[in-house]
Amino acid sequence: MKLLLLIGVVLLMAWIWRFSRRARMGDGVNRKPPLAPQTDMVRCLHCAVHLPAAEAQHGRLGPYCSTEHRQLAEP
Q1: Is residue 62 a contact partner of residue 45, using CB atoms and an 8 Å limit?
Q2: Is the pLDDT confidence value at 14 over 90?
Q3: For the chain, how far is it from start to end, CA to CA, in angstroms?
Q4: Residues facing residue 42 across a β-bridge
Q5: Which of 1, 5, 9, 53 holds its CA 20 to 30 A away from the CA of 33?
Q6: How many CB atoms lie within 10 A of CB 62?
């Protein structure tokens, strides 16, 4: 009987310690991962795929996803 009481006290102390630590550090369940910075997206005029504007190949008519598509659309 004393062993069960000792186990109960140890479990209670562990629960109290964990609860107080979580309260000090904030609840990890509600944390959201940091968002990536937003970038402008453009659509390739040849195949209609969307890609970041910084990665697009720009031609006379607009953005393309690759040099090959730019050459095919703008002879």
Answers
A1: yes
A2: yes
A3: 90
A4: 51
A5: 53
A6: 15
